[in-house]
Amino acid sequence: MIKQQFEAPAKYKKWTYGLLAVGLVAFLAGFFFLGLSKDEHDQTRFWAGLLQNSLYFLMICNACMFFICINILGHSSWQTTFRRIPEAIAAVVPVFAVVSMLVFIAIVVGDQHHIYHWLDKDAVASDKILSWKKGFLNPTFFFVWTVITLVVWILVGRKIKQLSLRADEGEITGEEARQYIWNNTVWAGIFIVFFALTTGSTIPWLWLMSIDAHWYSTMYSWYTFMSSFVGGLALIALFVIFLKNQGYLEHTTSEQLHDIGKYIFAFSIFWAYLWFSQFMLIWYANIPEETIYFKPRLQGVYKGIFWFNFIVNFIAPILILMTRGSKRNYAIMTFMAMALVLGHWLDFYQMVMPGAMGDHFSLGWYEWGMLAFFSGMLMFFTGRALAKAPLVPKYHPYLKESLIHHT
Amino acid sequence: MTIKKFVVGCFDDENILFPAVKKVRKAGYKIHDVYTPFPLHGLDKELGMRDTSLHTVGFIYALTGLTTALGFISWILTKDWVQNYGGKPHFSLAAWIPIMFELTVLFSGVGMTLTFCYLCQLAPFVKKHHFHPRATDDQFVMVIECTSNTNVQEAENFLAAAGAKEVNVQMAETGWWLGRYDMNKKLFDNTTETVTA
After folding, report:
1. Which chain B residue has the Cα nearest residue A269?
2. Which sign does the torsion angle of CA A108, A111, A114, A117 carry?
3. What interface predicted TM-score (ipTM) does this complex get?
4. For the segment A85-142, what is each residue's pLDDT rounded down to a tens digit?
């Protein structure tokens, strides 16, 4: 029998609720012991942890919608058998958008200027660089652009999902199929253009780069985008393998897994390319205003995390995923995808923390608890979204091509 | 340079070709090769060919390129012609990574191309026998190599029964030769012993 409709197995539910429970305890403990603490370091730790996790999970979920859109624009068919999985992950974007919005409001209105230094009005007034950037780095612009961004992501994402659900209802043939593909193409194009204006450029400047308010790098947005994209791809791989093990997705074979593996392999290398491009120009020019960013990361207390990040996200995938066999191996792909989801979480950690916490960083119960909390949320809402629609878009015009896909 | 006897069958449909390959292999005939106008996915598997090792070779070339670049630059900039560039250390790995990367790509790219040409025996002026001119047009050409035990007539009939539109027997040079197509007349006229299905 073909299992079309996902039902979360007991083990999945157990893990989801377990992670949520652990995360909730960590969140409450964090709120009372850190968030309400008189100590500014503790407060910053609480909000920076929330910021890192909410942004990371928001951006990797949104990267799944980006994955669908590039495949639509490329008229690629290979992913049709499992495209409901990135769609389901992208369906969690509204949840994380609300969470991120709450965190932003708390940080900006609550004046957490240890995180966003540009919130400190006195500092901005007496600081030449910050007053130059005042037109961009101010609460009004921050909120207006953030709200626009989140709303467009959610609405266009929902539209693309609705178009996909059309493929469950009935045969799409001839002129209608052509029209269907064209509609998909137009909406995917709209999403990608907007994605380039947000994740590809302005949004990482606003949300993450402004933590180091004086510093800037033109590579930063691409770097963040690529980090979230590899995280999203690894997430897709994990869900595909999980569903496959549960007996779903019988049309998704090692051919499709091979292609997901190629994506992960290629974009891990591209991530490293951007990582290095950002580093090398700054290293070469050796200008104090710029090298300040790498000072704590390369020579300070974040040294270990910084290099570990590079090893997990570049050296490991390039060596492990290089051969054809390993990309088609479920165990190796599971291991690598897990490592990359964690690795890019750590990447976001080292983007946020040095600017926010300085030398007083900690990677303890609260940070891991937050990871558990947000992973639990992701699993809960993705599981719900997966259960809402059949796992294979039965009448999608490209489905047949996907079934006979061969690498 | 050996001249062997081949039984050649032309198919005009890949949906007939695939089962035919299976049947021919099952019957114990030795398939020399199948020539197709475009790549057919899965045909290599059907023919029982192993995966290519070209990527392993590529990896080795890449490592060669990487070590060549690293070795050569570090020798120049720390031993042979030491210079001070902007106060940077003489051994400045970060500055060399672009060059190391380029040489890695160059070595693996050029090396794999040449290896590919060698494996397929492709080079300027190198000629090989064509079993059927329409293999580059619209026909899938299956070539069975005859051994001393092969009953040629039986093989021809077998191919015809498997769906070949045109079957013939050819004596052909298996290796390559330099120069021109001395056999160019034969290329278009070798319709010896044609059996039509």
Report:
1. B101
2. positive
3. 0.79
4. 999 999 999 999 999 999 999 999 988 888 999 998 888 899 999 999 999 999 999 9
Mean pLDDT of B128-137: 87
For chain A positions 255-314, those within 8 Å of chain B (CB to CB) are 276, 279-280, 283-284, 286
How far apart CA A7 and CA A29 sit, in angstroms, is 33
Q: Are A48 and A174 in contact (CB under 8 A)?
A: no
Whole-angstrom Cα distance, residue B35 to residue B39?
Answer: 9
Q: What local confidence, expressed as pLDDT, does residue A358 receive?
A: 87
Q: How many angstroms away from the CA of A314 is the closest CA of chain B? A: 15
pLDDT of B183 strictly over 60:
no
Question: Are the CB atoms for A343 and A310 separated by under 8 Å?
Answer: no
Q: What is the C-alpha separation between A170 and A389, in angstroms, rounded? A: 14
Query: Would you state the structure tokens that stand for residue A401, as one six-digit string?
Result: 């091509």
- In order of their start, the domains of chain B are 3-49+123-196 (3.30.70), 54-119 (no CATH)
CB atoms < 10 A from the CB of B121, how many?
A: 11
Of A52-56, A332-336, A338-342, A389-393, least confident by mean pLDDT is A389-393
Tokens of B143: 């070539």
At residue B173, the 3 state secondary structure works out as strand
Q: A354-358, A368-372, A395-399: which has the highest mean pLDDT?
A: A368-372
User: Can you give the pTM of this predicted structure?
Assistant: 0.89
Q: Are B160 and B9 in contact (CB under 8 A)?
A: yes
Interface of B with A (CB under 8 A): 41-42, 51, 55, 59, 86-87, 94-95, 97-98
Q: What is the pLDDT of residue B1?
A: 65
- Rounded to 5 degrees, φ, ψ at A180 are -60, -45
Question: At a CB cut-off of 8 Å and minimum separation 6, what does A326 contact?
Answer: A261, A320, A332, A333
| Rounded distance between C-alpha atoms, residue B92 and residue B84, angstroms | 11
Whether chain B has a CB inside 8 Å of the CB on A78: the answer is no
Residue type, A143: F
Cβ neighbours of residue A328 closer than 8 Å, sequence gap 6 or more: A254, A257, A258, A261
> Where are chain A's structural domains?
13-403
Question: How far from B111 is each of A5, A69, B68, B105, B162, CA to CA, in Å?
Answer: 50, 36, 14, 10, 41
Q: Flag if A286 and B86 touch (Cβ within 8 Å).
A: yes
Where do the H-state alpha helices sit in chain B? 14-26, 43-46, 54-75, 93-119, 152-161, 184-189
Torsion sign across C-alpha atoms A332, A334, A336, A337: positive
Contact, A54 vs A375, CB < 8 A? no
Kindly report, residue by residue over A218-229, the tens digit of the pLDDT.
Answer: 899 999 999 999
pLDDT tens-place string over residues A157-167: 999 999 999 88
- A52-63 in b/e form (b: 16+ CB < 10 A) is bbbbbbbbbbbb
| Structure-token pair, residue A109 | 């209105």
pLDDT band at A38 (very low <50, low <70, confident <90, very high): confident
